[in-house]
Amino acid sequence: MKIKSTIFDKRITSINLLIETTLAEYFNLSKEILDNNEFQRRRVKSSSTVYSLLKSDIRQGCVIPPIVLALSLDIDTHAMNDEQLLKVIKDNIKKLIILDGLQRTYTIRDVANELLDSNNPNLNDIMSFPIRLEVYLGINKLGILYRMLTLNTGQSPMSIRHQIEILYSDYLVTGIEGIKLLKEVDDSAPKRLGEYKFKDVIDGFNSYLDRDYLSIDRMDILDNIKSLEKLSSENQHSDLFIDYVKSYNHFVIKVNELAESWEFDSERIDHSMTGQPFAKSVDKIFNKSQAMTGFGSAVGKLTDLKLISGFSEIEQLIAESLTGDISDSLDLIIVKLDNIRNIAKKIGNDQRLFFHFFFRELFDKKGDAYLKFELAISEAYRQYERRTQ
Amino acid sequence: MSVSLFDTSASKLIPLVIDSSRPNDDGSGTIFIMKSSDGILANVIFKPTLNSKFSFANINPENFEIILLDNPYFNAESDVFEVHESTVNNDKIGWIFPISYIDSDETDELSLKSTVDLYKASSFINLLKYEGAGMKFPAINSPQMDNVNYNISQFFGDNLIILAIHKETINKIKGFKMSDYMLSLFKLGYSKYGEKSVIYNSNKKLLTENLKKTKKITLSKSKFDISKNLFVETVFYNYLNYTDNSYLRFVFIYQVIELLMDFQKEMKFNEYLDKYKSGSIHGNDFREKLSEYSKERKVIGQVIASSLRKKTDYVDFLQLCNEYIIKNGGQIADDLSDSIYNLRNLLTHNFRRVAEKMEELDTVVVGLEFIIVEMLIDYNFSDTNTWCYEI
């Protein structure tokens, strides 16, 4: 592996290294990347004719366009020489992400595996063909997302949701300050405060980025890019994803404290439930995707309207201003969600809408329900009815 | 048969067929990969309800038939109803649900008690295989965005309602035809997909309260086959779709009563003619009977007697209709047929009295529509009177 060129990308404040290596070296590198990032593993089905042509071209030594990788590290690369830069990459292979060239990577791997399986005598010659890599080193996650989107234009597009999954998948392993993110496998439902499904957190963060409680994958790359541009100024000094997760978790912890061991009991309320309650405990209400997307979209909207400055202000409000016994309010939330289940054209979407209105009312300093839990619930339901019925 | 997608860039219908299927990443559902001849792919995801152990290996969609409906009153995701049929000991013949129910993976206690998932999954497959003109389809990008799964409602629109029936069960019903049950569905606001609900209800609550509690629909075979009478069929499928105006709807729907009155008069005429010819009655009696049956008020009474089984079911309408008529200068009626005839007279001869207060007429006309549909379902109608099916 040799660095052939180093350029500083001023748009996303990261260095871009042009590296020349061999197919063999990239084959070994890519195995680590794909093994360590399950979200990156999906392969797009493409025309068998084109695919065969590319494989044949690789065997003949065609020049493959540079594959673009990113390594998100909090690191100062200013004074590093080439050897030190390569060492950083080699020491952090597991954290590498493929920004552009996933399908080419699969094709290279297929060629290598076919040559190995058939004991092809040309294996060493072919695998020593050169290949170029571009590595963005040290950039923040939104910068990576921006780069991914611009690089992917015109090709088989990845949804922004998928890209966010790739970017933040390392938090599945490390967690975020004691907050545990769980993968989507059997028996991995959140069981206690501070545990959330990774997929649901992604939904919520996506809703924050989109300012939209419906996490629909948008097809228009330009729309996605414009959203990111708007957000890039917010993301200068902190990682928005971490801010989102932490502030949401603080909200849930605070509500749990104020709830004083609340548990839903249908006998206590003056309402005939039409089915199972949405949840029976605080953590089960708020560890659901519907609440997280409502929170994300509401905070996003309030930020755009300059009613709050961002997640830091939310944290402050939660810590200092959310007070009082909210047991009755929690009963009310379950009743309202039961009503919604009965009348909603799409239950999940309408629940998201309700939570969006709830968080907006709770944190809107110009509203009557500002920091008033019960009033925020009633007002949210009123707005929900007005919007949908 | 295939689902079609509308590609706005190409402005053409793209037929798709099921190419393959696989579990989704977290095992919570199954992704069906739809493919076109141009190689365009679309993933459509199905998720069973959370509390059921489910496998498509156990599903044979051929065992189920789907009928596509519309209903502006029962299109909430939770408007999932068992469907029973009155002639097979009220056995369940299927389920009726909105398309959003198929998309949903919300915890659903229904599936704990029944095999609704079988119907849901079979409907999903049958929809994927369904080719129909006039459906709404999403525009998709080509190439397919990686990792994006469509919901089936994106192909058919949010308003679609599916009646899924079990073929083996309906085969127990002699001569089963869905068209025989459309009137029964009309009463609940259901109509053929893409058409407006036949029964217009300005007060949704009146229609929905009971059904949302019982969660069960019982279909009754209509004794009057509207598909065999072009005029009645046109009233329901055509004229009533033109307008929400209560007065116009009254004019259209009352024509059905007029038609039934003609049937009644014709039947009675033939009955008395036969008696006269056989000598059972004399000429004067014959003339008197004819004269009696020329009075509309009497004939309506006979129509009601021939059709509606339990007149006590219509006490509310009688009260409503009387209140409306009295308020507008008319007289109180003692029974249902009189109240309908009084209403007819008020609207025909004194419309000017009510013209400024049309909204008061809405509920009355809705009630009347229900009653007329009931009359057609239960009409004591002789099968030998085939002339009733002439235009």
Provide a descriptive summary of the structure in words.
- The complex is a heterodimer of chains A (389) and B (391).
- With 389 residues, chain A is of the alpha/beta class.
- Chain A folds into two domains: 2-152, no CATH class; 185-194 and 203-388, no CATH class.
- Chain A has helices at 23-36, 48-59, 82-91, 102-117, 123-127, 141-152, 160-168, 171-174, 198-210, 221-232, 240-259, 282-286, 289-304, 311-321, 327-343, 347-363, 373-388, and strands spanning 2-9, 14-22, 67-71, 97-100, 130-137, 180-182, 195-197.
- In chain A, the strands form two sheets. In chain A, strands 1-2-5-3-4 form a five-stranded mixed beta sheet, sandwiched between helices. Chain A has a two-stranded parallel ribbon with strand order 6-7.
- In chain A, helix 2 (48-59) crosses helix 4, helix 11 packs parallel to helix 14 (311-321) and helix 16 crosses helix 17 (373-388).
- The radius of gyration of chain A is 24 Å and the shape is elongated.
- Chain B is α+β, with helices and mostly antiparallel strands and 391 residues long.
- Chain B has two domains: 3-221, no CATH class; 230-389, no CATH class.
- Chain B has 15 helices and eleven strands.
- Chain B has helices at 99-103, 110-113, 116-128, 153-156, 167-170, 182-186, 204-214, 230-242, 246-278, 283-292, 296-307, 315-327, 336-349, 351-354, 358-378, and strands spanning 3-7, 12-23, 30-35, 41-46, 64-70, 81-85, 92-98, 149-150, 161-166, 191-192, 216-219.
- In chain B, the strands form two sheets. Chain B has a six-stranded mixed beta sheet. Chain B has a five-stranded mixed beta sheet with strand order 1-2-3-4-8.
- Chain B is elongated and about 85 Å long.
- The two termini of chain B are 36 Å apart.
- Classes of the chains: A alpha/beta (389), B alpha+beta (391).
